Structures are given as C-alpha cells and as structure tokens.
Amino acid sequence: MKTLLKKMAILSIAMLVFGCSKDDSPAEVVKTKVKITGYRIDSFSFVANDGLGWDGISGSPDVYSGIFNGNSTLIVTSNIIDNVSASMLPITVTLNSPYLVPNFSDTINVVVMDSDNSTFWATSDDEIGFVPFIMSDYTTGADKYPTTKTKTANGVSVTLFLTWE
C-alpha cells in the first residue's frame, strides 16, 4: 500500500511539473486592412516600343502616374513631371489621403504614363508600363504584412508604401 501511495504521489508531482506548460508565443495577429500611403517609381524603360524615346528621337518622357483598383477605377493621379531623365529617378508620390484597399483580392495597378498634351489620361498619351499588386499575396509567408513592397512588371519597377491594420 505504501508503495502504491508513493508511486501515486510521484506521478502527481510529475504531472504537476511536466503536465502543464505555458505557451509564451504571442497569438498571431491577423491584419484585416491595408492602406496605400504612397508609391515610388524606381525605374522604367526610356525607349518606347517603336525603339525611339517616349517623345521622339531625343525626347524624354513627361511622366505622370496613377493608382487604379482594377483596370478602370482611378484612385489617384500624380502631377506631370516634364522631361524626366534617368537621373531624376526614383519618383516618389505621397497620397494626401491613404487609400484603404477594399478587398485584399483586388488588383491594384500602378500605371506610369507619358503625357503628350498635358491632359491626364488622354488617348494620345503613351503607357510606359504598369505594375499589378494583389494584397492577399502579402498576407502569408516570411514577408507577410510588409511596409514596403517592390515589384517589377511590364517594364516598370514600383515600390508601394503600406500600412497594415
């Protein structure tokens, strides 16, 4: 009987010491909102599809850009910067009011344009290129919820500035 009581006491102590563990890892925070606070045009080709400069043989592009949600919903447009040269890059655009992305699965396009007549989004303007971003791509993995995200596509490299909540 003493042996049985002794074994039960040892087992009880072992359960108290080893049976309870404290999980010190913090609970994973899932972000449900992302705001775009700005973007930076890091690079683009100074040669148009016709092999010439954007404004003819020696013309530098008059650059403006914008953010679209999808292909048609314009969110913001930058100012036109005349005669942009490579030494003027990068071009940073800060949004006056951060854009709250309505759905992480939306495609956010940063479009870079060459103005031909000082009118925004005119049919005569040339699209230098665009970069699509999908916020759900940045919610998992080692680089989830980044404050900046750089991507290159369609001849343009752009960095988004992001705030996650």
Instruction: Tell me the overall shape.
Output: elongated
Total E-strand runs: 8
Mean pLDDT: 87
Ends: how far apart? 62 Å
Determine the strand fraction and express it as a percent band: 35-45%
* H/I helix tally: 1
- Supply the helix-strand structural class: mainly beta
Going across the biggest sheet, name each strand in turn.
Answer: 4-1-8-7
Q: From N to C, what is the helix and strand string?
A: HEEEEEEEE
Q: Name the quaternary structure.
A: single chain
Question: How would you describe this structure to a colleague?
Answer:
- The chain is mainly beta and 165 residues long.
- The protein has one helix and eight strands, in the order H-E-E-E-E-E-E-E-E.
- The strands form two sheets. Strands 4-1-8-7 form a four-stranded antiparallel β-sheet, with no helix packed on it. It has a four-stranded antiparallel β-sheet with strand order 3-2-5-6, with no helix packed on it.
- The longest helix has 17 residues, at 2-18.
- The model has no long low-confidence stretch (mean pLDDT 87).
Keywords:
165 residues; mainly beta; four-stranded antiparallel β-sheet; 1 helix; elongated
Please provide a brief summary of the model.
This protein is mainly β and 165 residues long. The protein is built from one helix and eight strands; from the N terminus they run H-E-E-E-E-E-E-E-E. It is elongated and about 100 Å long.
